Amino acid sequence: MMQTITPDEHDPLSLSTCLAVALVSGAIIAYELFVMRVFANGGWSHFGSTVISIAMFGFGFYSTALCIWKEYFKKRLRPWVSASLLLLGPAMAIANSGAQKVPFNPIFLVSDPAQKYYLAAYFLLYFLPFLLGAMFLGLFFLMGQRDFGKAYFANMTGSGIGGMAIFGGMYCLLPERLFLIPVLLWVCGAVLWLKSRGSRKELALLAVSALLTAAVGLYFPQINVSQYKGVSYARNFPDAHRVYESASPFGYLEVYSSSYFHFAPGLSDVAMLYLDKMPEKAYLGMYIDGDGPVGLMKKLSESEAEYLEFLPMSMPYLLKKAAEVLVMQFGGGISTNVALDMGARHVTVAEGNPMVIEALRDRNFVSRFTGAVLENPKVRLIQNEGRIYVGQTEEKFDVIDLSLADSTGLSMSGGSSIYEKYTYTKETFLSCMRALRKDGLLAVTVWNKEDPPKSTLKLMNTLIRAAGDARNTKDVRDAGNVREPSEGPDEIRHDFFIAHTYLSTLTVLYKKGGFSDDEVLRLRKYCKRMSFETIYFPGCPAPKGSLDRLFGAYVNAYFAPQENEALGEEVDMSAGSLYRHVVERFLSGDFKSVEKGYVFNVDALTNDRPYFAGFVKFPDIPRFVDKLEAISDEWGYLLLWATLLLSVLFGLALMLLPLIFGSKAFFSRRSGKLSVILYFLCLGVGYILVEIGMIGKTVLCLGNATVSVAVLVTGMLVFSGLGSYASGRFASRAGSTMIVVCSSLAVVLFLYAFSLDRLFELAGSWPYAARILFCLLLLFPPAFLMGFPFAIGMVTLSRLQKERFFVWAWGINGSFSVAGSVLAPVIAVSFGLSTVIVISALLYLVALPSFFRLRMPERQAG
Amino acid sequence: MELQQRIEEAVKSLPIISITILAFFFGLSLTVLADEGIAPAGSPSIQETAGQDTSGEKLPEENPPAESAKPEAAEKSVLGSVPVDPAVLAGGTVAKLPKLPHASMQEFVKYMKNERKEDEKFLELRYKRGNSLIRNKDLYREKEIRAFLMTPREKFCRKWNLKRAYDHAFLDIGHGVTISGPHLVGRMTSAIDVQPTDRVLEIGTGSGYQSAVLSYLTDQVFTIEIIEALAGDTDKLYTELAGSGYPEYAKIKRKADDGYYGWEEFAPFDKIIVTCGIDHIPPPLLKQLKIGGIMVIPVGPPGAQILLKVTKNKDEEGNFVIAREDIYHGRKKVPFVPFTTKEGGTHFK
After folding, report:
1. What would the pLDDT profile of B294-332 be if each residue is shown by its tens digit?
2. Annotated catalytic residue, options B45, B180, B211, B215
3. What is the domain-level CATH number for residue B115?
């Protein structure tokens, strides 16, 4: 019989106690999400993820401490639980307020040695509240280990509710005020906990603590927006004033008015020869989470609108008059205005962000400024993402425009993070090709500000592969006169026209059925007049020179620049030359030689690997370590690797500390250490891989990443909590239960890995609430099952009186969850989201034999 | 008892251990990354010719490739032995400045200390950075080398990063603005090859350092800053410096305004430098650029920027030709960021 460790007379798992724990767990998750919002609005979101990942080691750190000094904490359970609870609120306030004073700026990370200390200061600050949270939960788990499933249920469900509370709060609170949600949850949880203990003194201390939290939280700014953030520049314009503001889970949207906004993406350099002047005060600047601006265009007079013809987005309308147009993303409205100005008969425009629609439609200043373009009788608004709409619709279009959509992810400077870009995948382009009428045009314009090119080559690869697949896809062929496969691979050469302006924009035109000679001539003349460089047109001669030598020169440029000093004139390293060679290979169906030979990864984007980031090839990462400045647009991805390295090392260190220090004597006498490590490591990594893999896939269906994260995280936590609660009923037959659970889980995950894309595509046209429900339904089976293994494992350790293993296992699980959260995007970028889910299935299978080893009774050595 | 002592020791040492681990890994992953060995190759030099058609056929209204000035190769790559460009000494303010001795650091420091009363420590750093710029071919003509050596960069940095004034790095100057690194300034200055009679417009005054360098090449420098507070600070700085041994800065014409529209009153300009981000080249600026004029614009993320060079010419038929290219005309494969500094320390030092 196991000895009781309950510190006082209270039932450690009474309803009020569990509710209190749920609320405090919710506060911790809500605080984590709040801090992510702080980073997104104040500085750089991907550094927020890194900071939080490392700070979450507070859990691993405390479990290690608990493992080493278990007896100490057991004797003083009550004061430590109370202290951690009372200090949690002030720690949350002080950590975030303090972090706003840290002058960290990632753009100086490589060049300024002081930045690494600032980053370390972030970690230490945010470490504190997570350490206190971990202390409270760890001691609670120790108290409630007899019925761990119930304890874990309270923790998980509470966490899920905390996530939901922040999500709901984002509808009614500005980002800075979101701080109130974790504080409120903490206060409620602490009151319940202390009241159930009946200590007036501690309740009085809580009042003081809450007042201190409120004072710090309200007095000091909770978000300090960096001067280097897009919106800060607008605020510096002398005549700038904010004309609109709105907050929701889709972000914090601000619109500024200033005469200093000038937008004309890709404008021809010769425009000045033909235009008397550019339209003045023609734009408002729109910022989401401080990033931007996106230019919201005013209704232009006829003379002002002249300049639209000098934008590359006007190219499809040279060939298509009175066209039926689909604009894939409204954005700031430039594409819609170009289409209307160039004589489109009707424009269907998709916009997936309800905040943008709200800003433009509700008869406010913004709506009036833009001439209520969305209410133009020629315009029809689709309140969904363009890629989801085009995948579902049966309508056909003469022109589909995809111009600078999600432009923050394409060739934007400053270290873009890893975001799913489903709008630019092969599957989306195939859907677009299917939705084109006979002779219809797909026009894709992207930023082209990289040299050497990376994103643009990925785009070309994707589009040309999609066109090749279109010829072999019956429903695409049936929808228009795409040439039959029998006509030979060369036929695809008729379908493309590509032009660019160096360090400006690149436009790819795809025509279903191919361009006629007359159309090619018209486009070439236009490009000539506009000073756009033609990369490819049907009938153009093959480029001269050796592509292998050219690729060699690009590799040398980074790794052996002295070799290039002796390069002959025949190797032309201009972007135009590279594009011509690469397009020629792609159109010949030779994708492999480019993907292998070019210095960067230029693989096509698919729904399984929808990433522009990650252009440094995996084996080259060590070679770029001393050339970081040269690839500063890849820092988001490289930061993941750095975080992974750190989290694995931290995880190992925390795991091994009990073996090295105080518990050496204990551990040396105990068997089953490796099983504990393997089992809980697999569960920690496996769980988070499923969560992140599923989030990535859910974006396909729900669109917005924030909403997807909120739905998935809440669903996972609540369903897994239910699973762990249910596991208590099966404790007596843990072995057979685990066999059923792990094998069922593996089957479900394998199935999901290969079928989720299709299922989510099917749901794409459903109402948004139905889609959320559908995602939750799909999530339930794996999430519920995943609640079992951890709870059963912990209860088993508890029943076997392996108490030290119990806390150690909790720490291993927590530490490697952090490592897994970083591992998931790393795997996804290189191998795809499906692989992430497959690996998680394998991990649960690997965990199974370890469980049986772990169940073996204690064997005292010596 | 022994176990308890060990535990107590461990308690005491845990924070230190954790901080050490943290510092070690960050030292490993960040400091090392920012170390001497960094060889950010930047981008290979690229040449682009606007309006180019790939067919080889002659289209109607064919534009000939724009003429582009190729930078000369540096004959020598160390300070003091670069051949003097006679044009520099021909006239204008530049010619009135005394010939700057820079055959050795001691000679340079001694001269500048006597003439300008500048801090010896910064003079040494300036001289060393100048060497680095020459080796990296950011500077290759005597006139730009002299302009660089004459300009006290430390006066344009802020006190919080003054010690790093001559590091190979862009530095924060407040308002969300940076002072460009010496290599970028050197390369931009060389790219536009300022003649003593040239009229040069800078869009984005920032710290004022770029215009200060230009002021040693021509006395017709015009600069516009959009952020009023920053423009005010820099204006004040120029005035102060002009009154304390740097009279050339008094001639820099400056205003706080929207640079998008250029400075019509003083147009046309021979050379234009645009240092602010924008999604297109402002047509008013191209209009205010002389025929045969050059505009340079850094594009891309900080630290790995590519210098876009835009030239405005007329073809034989009188049509305007606007050409975009890399400043090295697509042939010299010179990395933008220097590979190493031989003097030791990190390449920032």
Report:
1. 999 888 766 667 888 999 988 887 778 888 887 765 544
2. B180
3. 3.40.50.150
